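> call design_seq(struct)
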């Protein structure tokens, strides 16, 4: 049985009534028998969730010979971490994982710093920060970049020729010729310098409107470059200073050689080579979209920052911008409904929950928290994606 932080059922006598505290919810009940029935129902439901968590973890690590799967939980300010290998739970070691697209919420937090100082505004057009752009055209605002309503394609900065003549043949070769069924992420094409960024921006004809939601790595990269222009610093240096000094995260950074780093693997248990990952190149302007490495402890500390209602950055990043989005996760097949904060996904089923997932070659991750119940969960794995992820973090969050 997988053990987690559990809430106990507390019964208190109060003014002729019995108050029941079930998992953080207080209910006044007059009848002793009703209390017992509700407590038993709660206990059965709770046990079913624990069993489900155990089953999902078992499925997630199955067949992964080199797996290092960390589950981190936060409740009442207390942190619990557990590590699993291919045989199940093992002695805990704090590894450094690549967190992929979760880097976007750190970029949004950095943006919030400059929104707070008034050096940037969400309604600003990016043309205000890139003076060499052509006049007379419409360009996205800062808000549209941070909420994926910019009109930029999810394929960017890949070109049509790269998709047709490099990415597609590689996918066909792996899935139909060798039958390896390897997930081709296209990350090897995610390198971009400043001239390429400006060229893509200028070639895209946009209107001054909120476009239909479309997840854009390129849009977040442009956002990161705008912040760099404001700060007059290279993005990797700027972000690393922010992570260390503003967020007090000592083991989270943009770096090509993180300490105690775990190796990433594909679905065939083959190691990904660092040379294939352009996010290790600190000159790459795509860094804001997915180049951060972190530990479970730092990720949970970042959840604490987001649960702190007095923290100025959260007031910006957790505000809701735009309408509900229906999105089908291709890895799990589950349909998610959410609204957008600045880079954060706000769950429509439970609006108290904010989350973001990350995939990059050889790594899969998720960070999620409930602002009302003050609980959070982090999942970090050194394999690219697994279909149990979305259901697993949700069940854990419900159980805390």
């Amino acid at each position: 049985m997988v053990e987690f932080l559990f809430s106990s059922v507390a019964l208190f006598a109060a003014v002729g009534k019995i108050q029941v505290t079930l998992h953080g919810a207080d209910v006044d009940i007059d009848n002793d028998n009703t209390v017992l029935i509700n407590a038993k129902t709660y206990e059965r439901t709770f046990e079913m969730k624990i069993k489900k968590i155990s089953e999902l973890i078992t499925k997630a690590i199955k067949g992964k010979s080199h797996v290092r799967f960390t589950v981190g939980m936060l409740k009442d300010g207390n942190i619990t971490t557990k590590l699993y290998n291919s045989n199940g739970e093992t002695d805990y070691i704090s590894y450094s994982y690549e967190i992929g697209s979760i880097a976007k919420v750190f970029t949004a937090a950095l943006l919030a710093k400059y929104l707070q100082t008034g050096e940037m505004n969400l309604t600003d057009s990016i043309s205000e920060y890139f003076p060499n752009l052509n006049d007379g055209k419409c360009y996205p605002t800062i808000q549209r970049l941070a909420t994926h309503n910019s009109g930029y394609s999810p394929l960017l900065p890949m070109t049509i020729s790269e998709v047709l003549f490099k990415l597609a043949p590689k996918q066909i070769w792996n899935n139909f010729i060798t039958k390896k069924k390897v997930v081709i992420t296209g990350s090897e094409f995610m390198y971009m310098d400043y001239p390429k960024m400006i060229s893509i921006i200028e070639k895209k004809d946009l209107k001054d409107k909120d476009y239909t939601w479309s997840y854009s790595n390129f849009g977040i990269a442009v956002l990161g470059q705008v912040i760099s222009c404001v700060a007059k610093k290279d993005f990797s240096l700027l972000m690393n200073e922010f992570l260390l000094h503003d967020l007090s995260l000592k083991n989270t950074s943009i770096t090509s050689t993180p300490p105690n780093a775990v190796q990433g693997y594909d679905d065939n248990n083959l190691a990904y080579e660092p040379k294939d990952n352009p996010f290790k190149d600190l000159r790459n302007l795509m860094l804001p979209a997915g180049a951060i490495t972190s530990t479970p402890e730092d990720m949970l500390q970042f959840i604490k920052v987001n649960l702190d209602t007095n923290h100025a950055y959260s007031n910006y990043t957790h505000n809701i911008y735009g309408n509900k989005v229906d999105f089908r996760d291709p890895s799990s097949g589950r349909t998610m409904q959410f609204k957008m904060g600045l880079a954060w996904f706000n769950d429509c089923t439970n609006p108290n929950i904010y989350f973001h997932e990350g995939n990059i070659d050889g790594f899969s991750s998720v960070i999620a928290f409930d602002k009302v119940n003050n609980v959070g969960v982090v999942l970090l794995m050194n394999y690219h994606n697994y279909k149990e992820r979305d259901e697993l973090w949700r069940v854990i969050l419900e159980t805390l």
